[in-house]
Design brief:
By secondary structure, the protein is of the alpha+beta class. It contains 25 helices and 18 strands.
Length: 584
Amino acid sequence: MKQFGCFRIDAQNELLWRDGKPVPLAPKPFAVLRYLVESPQRLITHDELLDALWPETYVQPQVLRTYILELRKVLGDDPDRPQYILTVPKRGYRFVCGVEEVHGSSPSGASATEAGVGLVGREAELAKLESDFARALRGQRQMVFLCGDAGMGKTFLVDAFCERVGHSSHLRIARGQSMEGFGGKEALYPVREALGQLLAYERPSQVLARLVPGWFGKKAEDPGRPPSLGELCEAVEALAQEEPLLLVFEDLHWADASTLDFISALARRRGQARLMLLASCRPGELDGQHPLKRLKEDLTTHRLCCVIPLLALDREAVAGYLKRQLQTSCLPSGLASFVHQHSEGNPLFMAAILDHLQRERLMENQNGTWQLSLPLSEIELGIPQGLLGMMDLQLERLSEADRRLLEAGSIVGAIFPAWAAAAALKTGVPDVEDEFASLARRTRLLNPAGQDELPDGTRSTFYVFAHGLFREALYSRQPAARRAERHRRVAEHLKTMFAGSEANIASELARHYEAAGCWQQAIEALHLAADTAGNREAQHAACEMLRHALDLCTHLKAQERKALEPVLKKKLKKYSEWTSMEIA
C-alpha cells in the first residue's frame, strides 16, 4: 500500500483512502492514479498512459483528460498550484507529491462496501444482482439492465456489486464506459475498452488475440479491421468458458448502435455460458425512437434479460445517509423529512442539499451536536424541483454574457470544444477561448480539458462541465428557436471542417441537424451514417438509422418526401434482408 499526503492507495483491493475513510473512485480513474503514484516525480507522457491502460485500443484524448479532472476533484488538487498531479503542457503528467510504502491492511480494516460508501437504501437491488450472478455461475447467462435517472446511484451500486463478487475465485470483471463524445460515437467503444482490460491476463489475452485479431492480434494482416458481431460473441463466450466473466457497460444510453447490436446478439445466443452482462442507463434519455428502449423491450418480451429499476430513496434511507455523513446518531428534528422532501429521494440531490446546508452555515456542529441556525420552516433552499432548481440559482448569479457562453457550450455536450461554442454564437474563436478561460477561473461550473488539433491544423481548447446536469440545465433553459439555430450553426461548421470525410461525423451531423429542424440535411446525414454502418457489417444499426430517417420524412413537403422515401425504403429492405440471413 502506498501513502501520499492524507491519502493511501490500496492497489490489491483497488481502493483509495483519505484520513482512514474510503473514497469512491471508478476503476479507470483509479487505474490512472495508481500508475502515476507508482512512478512519482517522473514525467508520464500521454502515450505512455494510454498504452499502459488501454493497450491495443484507440482512446480519444479528451477521455484521459476527463479522468485527470475527476482525480483532481477527488484529491482537492488545484491545477494552478498542484500538490499531487502536475500537468506538463503538450507532454503528459508528473506526480509531484512524496510517496512512501506502508504495510498493513486497509486503514479501517473494512472494504468500501462494508463501510457503506455511497450505497444507501439499495440492499434489495444488491441482493437481486447477487442472485443473478449466482445463476450466471451455474452457466445460465444473465443480461441485466440497471435503470435509474441521473443521480440515482447507479455507479455506486455497480461498484459495490463488483467489489462484493470480486472476491470470488477465478472471476474476471471487465468494465466499459459509453461516452457522450464529440465528433460521433466510436463503434463498439465500451466493448473494446472492457475487453482491453483483460489483456493484462495471459489466457484471456491469448483468446482475444486468436478470436478478435482485428483489435488484439499483434500479427494480424489487417489490424484495423473492426471485428464482426459473430467474432465478438465467440470471443466473449470463449472467455466465459475459461473463467466466469462479468461484463459491465455504464451509461448505455450514450452507446453507439453497434454496441447495442452486440448486446442483442450476445443475449440471443443459446449455449450455456458463465457470463453476466450488467448495463446501466438512464430511462429519461430513452424516448420512443431510442434503439436501446426497443432493445430492452424486445429482450424483456422474450425473457432474455431482466430490468432492475433504481427508484427514489425513502425517508428512512435518507435518514441513514445523513447520520452516516454527519457521523451522528441523532439528527436535528425534522431534518430527514426536510431533505427527503426537497431531494425527492434522489441520492445526488440529497447530497447536494446537505452540502448546501453546511456551506451556507444553515447547519453547524456545536460541541459535537448538529444544530440548525434557522427553523426548517424558514430555510429557503430555492430548490422547487430538486437539484435543477439549485443549479438555476447558481446560474442566475452569473452575468448574462457568462450564461450565454455556457449555453452555447451546452449545445455539443458535457465535453465541448471552444470552437463549437464560437460557431453557435457566430463569433471569433480566440475571443470565446479567452472568455471561457476567465469563466473557468471564476466559477466551479466548468474546467479546461486540454486542447485538440482540428482537421485544418489549428488547435481548440476543450472544456467539461462540472457535472452533466449543469449541461442539461443550461441546454433546457434556452428558447427553442435560439437552440435550434445554434445547432444549425454547429452542424454547418462541422461540415466545413470535415469536408471530404463527412462519413466520420455523419451521426453527429444528423443529431445537430435534427435538433435544428433541418429535416432534409438530417435525413441525408442519417443515410450516410447507415451506409457507413452497413460497410462495417452492422446491418442492424444501419436499419435503425434508416427507420429514423423515414420517421423524419414526415416533416418534409409531399414532393420532397416522395423523392426520398423510396430510396430509403429500398436501402432498408436490403439491410433488413442481410440481417435476416445472419439470424437464420
